[in-house]
Amino acid sequence: MDGHESAREIYRQALPVVLVSLVAGLFAGTILGSETMRSGIESVPGILLLLPAFLATRGGVYGSLGARLSTGLHQGVIEPTFALDRRLTNAIVASFINGMTVSVFIAVITYLTLVILGGRGSLLELVGIMLVAGFLSAALMLSVLITVIFVGYRRGLNPDNVIGPVVTTLGDVFGVFFLLVGIYVVGVIT
Amino acid sequence: MTDAPGEPRSSTEPATSDGLDDPGGSTAIDEWSVQRIVRTMIPLLAALSVLQLVSGTVLESFERTLLQYPALLVLLPVQIGTAGNLASITCSRLTTQLYLGTYEPRLSNPDVRANVIAVFALAGTVFGLVGVAAWAIGVALGGSLALARVLLIALVSGMLLAVLVVVASVVAVEVSYRVGLNPDDTTIPIVTNLCDVAGVLILFAVVGVVV
């Protein structure tokens, strides 16, 4: 826990989580290749275009929240308890704002790229899909991430070795899945 | 937000003095204000989303190949995700070492060397398994790529990514520290995004050679 770990220790601590994330990634890949997703990609122009940006911002927003909490725990400025500490609340609120803002931004730049490339697309449809997928991701990521960091820390795991895999695992699987939910919800409404 | 300046500190704040003892230090409450976190991150996340459109465009242009070889579609999130995992382990560890004062970006530093060795060992283990698994799922989905080819694609693009992860992590921590940004906010978004975009480019470069 003091930052001086051997390569073997880092490997041993990180491997199980990385392997779990691998299985989850394969699961995400299978969802991506599924019949339902492919027809979604076909019916909504821009889904493939926004996919990398959408998945990446899960990592950016919630991975940095994790790293921030991890450093805070190591420094002793936050406690591994679920009490409403000011710093903890701030970090969570800021991550939610970041996640939602960036989701809408992605919808807009995807639409602009479609227009520039001479394709067709609906701004309203893309924004709607990103709002649904972004909100569901935020709710899931925030609750799971905080639980994993605090419970892991109390049991002696270095959160630095665990956060990244947890974030990318959940981000990818549920990112692809919530995108599918977004496409479905917006498709029903419109 | 809930963080208007001058607002009294919440009584649930356990150690109200720690920020005041060291107002310029990284432990100041200011470093944890909603405004500060949002202002640091939004421009960065926006810029990186624009960058991600590059891989989005590549994906769109390879749409037909992806649909023809399901193994590649299965490989895609895993390949990118694993690179991101390794990147965020490396960045997170380097940043903590920076705050604890044990950070020094040289191969002679045992902490850095342990990080690098662990990243390559993890990459070799994981990308080998990824290759076999993507091949099997691809076959189940009706694909026709041979095991040797999928394995070669996964391992070659994976090890190239591991090199990139290490170099990019060290550079990102170093640069954000020097320009005075909190590496916790900046390095992981930058490095994981870089690995995502490079992951797609490297993957399809290798696919172009092998398939």
UniProtKB/TrEMBL annotation, chain A:
Its main location: membrane. Pfam families: MgtE. The chain crosses the membrane at residues 14-34, 91-117, 129-153, 173-189. GO terms for cellular component: membrane. It is found in: Membrane. It is a multi-pass membrane protein. GO terms for biological process: monoatomic ion transport. It comes from the Archaea. InterPro entries: SLC41_membr_dom (IPR006667), SLC41_membr_dom_sf (IPR036739), SLC41A1-3 (IPR045349). Keywords: Ion transport, Magnesium, Membrane, Transmembrane, Transmembrane helix, Transport. Residues 52-181 form the SLC41A/MgtE integral membrane domain. The keyword Transport applies. The keyword Ion transport applies. This is Magnesium transporter.
